[in-house]
Design brief:
Mean pLDDT: 97
Shape: globular
Radius of gyration: 21 Å
Number of helices: 13
Number of strands: 15
Order of helices and strands: EHEHEHEHEHEHEEHHHEEHEEHEHEHE
Low-confidence stretches: none
C-alpha cells in the first residue's frame, strides 16, 4: 500500500510525474498549470528524478522539444493550460501524426480574449481533433490516477498516440484533497520500461520522421491514425482494470452514478460531475429517478457504450463548459446526440452551456436542470435545445 497525502491537483500531478520519472520534461509556465512544473523542478533540483528538464521559451517550443525527445526514444512529458495549449496546436498535430506517446497534463482554463485565467474546457475541446486521446478528471485523485494510466495507454504498441490528461483549473489544480499515492516501485512496475521501436538514434534500423507526404500516401497515413485511436477503447479499459487491481480504484471509458433505473440523466465532465453526484444522491433518497453519466474519455468518444447505458432513459441534459461557436450546441452535446441518433427510441436531449471563464455552478442550478428534464419527459416537448446556466439576464 502507498500513503495518503493532502495534495492540490497540481501537486498530485507533479507527484505522478515524479513516480513516472520521464526521460525528458519540457515545459513553459502558465497559470494555473505553473505549480505542476514548478514542483517537478524541485524534484529535479533535489535529484529525486533522473529527468532532463528543458525550460523553453514558449509552449510551442515545449511540444517541439517533446516531439524531438520522443522520436529519439525518450519517455517525454509536458504540461500546459489554455493559451499555452493553443500555441502548441501546430505541434500537437505533428505529435499525433508521428505516433509519439507524449503525455501532457492540461489544466483547463478559458481561452483569451478577454483575458481570463479561470476554468472552462475551451482549451482541450479546441484541440479535440488533433489526434490525441483525451482523459477528463473529476478530482485530484483522478488527475493522479489518470496520468499514470496515460503512460501505459500511450505506449501500447498498437496505439502509440499522445495522451492529454485534463483537470479543471483552480477548482482542482489549486484545491487540496485527500489523495492516495501508490508506492514508487508499484508505479514503475505498472508502467514498465519504455523502448521506442522506431528511434531516430537506432543506427541499425534507421527511420525518417517528418518527410514530405503528399497525396501519394498522406491519406493512408491518416487512416492509420484513425485505426489506432478507434482500437484504443479496449486498451483503455484493460489498463483501467489493471490499475484497479493495483490500487483498488477501477476505471472505465466513462463513470456513472446511479444509472440503474434512471429516467432523467445529466451528462458532465470534469469537476462538475462531483457536484452533480451530490444532487443525484440527495434526489435519489427522495425517490426521484435521476442519474449522472460522467464523461471520462472524450477522445475516442465512446458512442456505442454511451448509447447502451442511456437506453430507456426519458430525457438527458448535457452540460458543456465550452462553446463551439456557430454549431448546434457544445462539443459534448453534439457527440451525445450523434451517439443516440440510431436508437429506436432515443431520449430527448438538451444542452446547457455553463461555467465559462470559471463561473461557478451550484446545487440549485443542477436541481433546476433535473426539474426541466422532468417537464420534458412529461410533455415530450423540448422548448429550448440549448440553454445557459448561471447567465445574468
Amino acid at each position: 500500500m502507498g500513503k495518503i497525502l493532502g495534495l492540490t491537483g497540481d501537486e498530485a500531478t507533479a507527484e505522478a510525474m515524479r513516480q513516472i520519472n520521464p526521460d525528458v520534461l519540457a515545459a513553459y509556465p502558465i497559470t494555473p498549470q505553473t505549480e505542476t512544473v514548478q514542483r517537478f523542478s524541485e524534484f529535479v533540483a533535489e535529484g529525486t528524478v533522473a529527468t532532463e528538464m528543458v525550460r523553453v521559451e514558449s509552449e510551442h517550443s515545449a511540444m517541439s522539444a517533446c516531439v524531438g525527445a520522443s522520436a529519439a526514444g525518450a519517455r517525454a512529458m509536458t504540461a500546459t493550460s489554455a493559451n499555452g495549449l493553443a500555441l502548441m496546436w501546430e505541434i500537437c498535430y505533428i505529435a499525433a501524426s508521428y505516433r509519439l506517446p507524449i503525455i501532457m497534463a492540461v489544466v483547463n482554463r478559458a481561452l483569451s480574449g478577454p483575458i481570463n485565467i479561470h476554468c472552462d474546457h475551451s482549451d482541450s475541446m479546441g484541440a479535440r481533433d488533433a489526434g490525441w486521446i483525451q482523459i477528463y478528471s473529476e478530482n485530484c485523485q483522478e488527475a493522479y490516477d489518470n496520468l499514470i494510466q496515460a503512460v501505459r495507454i500511450a505506449e501500447e504498441e498498437k496505439i502509440r498516440l499522445p495522451v492529454m490528461v485534463t483537470f479543471d483549473g483552480f477548482v482542482i489544480s489549486h484545491a487540496m484533497e485527500r489523495v492516495e499515492i501508490l508506492e514508487d516501485d508499484e508505479v514503475r512496475g505498472f508502467i514498465g520500461e519504455y523502448k521506442n521501436a522506431y528511434s531516430l538514434l537506432d543506427v541499425d534500423s534507421p527511420v525518417t520522421y517528418g518527410p514530405l507526404d503528399l497525396y501519394d500516401y498522406y491519406f493512408e497515413h491518416k487512416r492509420q491514425q484513425i485505426e489506432a485511436i478507434e482500437i484504443s477503447p479496449e486498451v483503455i479499459q484493460k489498463i483501467g482494470r489493471e490499475f484497479g487491481d493495483l490500487s483498488g480504484r477501477y476505471y472505465d471509458l466513462m463513470g456513472n452514478c446511479h444509472l440503474e433505473g434512471a429516467e432523467l440523466v445529466i451528462v458532465a465532465a470534469g469537476s462538475t460531475a462531483g457536484t452533480v453526484k451530490s444532487v443525484v444522491d440527495e434526489l435519489r433518497e427522495k425517490g426521484e429517478k435521476v442519474g449522472l453519466l460522467k464523461i471520462r474519455i472524450f477522445r475516442p468518444f465512446p458512442a456505442k457504450q454511451i448509447a447502451e447505458v442511456l437506453r430507456g432513459v426519458k430525457a438527458v441534459a448535457v452540460l458543456d463548459r465550452s462553446v463551439s461557436f456557430g454549431a448546434q450546441g457544445g462539443p459534448i452535446f453534439m457527440e451525445i446526440r450523434s451517439a443516440l441518433f440510431d436508437e429506436i427510441k432515443p431520449p430527448a436531449v438538451v444542452n446547457y452551456i455553463y461555467g465559462l471563464g470559471g463561473r461557478d455552478i451550484g446545487v440549485d442550478e443542477i436541481k433546476r436542470v433535473y426539474k426541466n428534464l422532468e417537464r420534458i419527459a412529461h410533455t415530450k416537448k423540448v422548448d429550448e435545445l440549448v440553454g445557459y446556466l448561471g447567465l445574468r439576464e
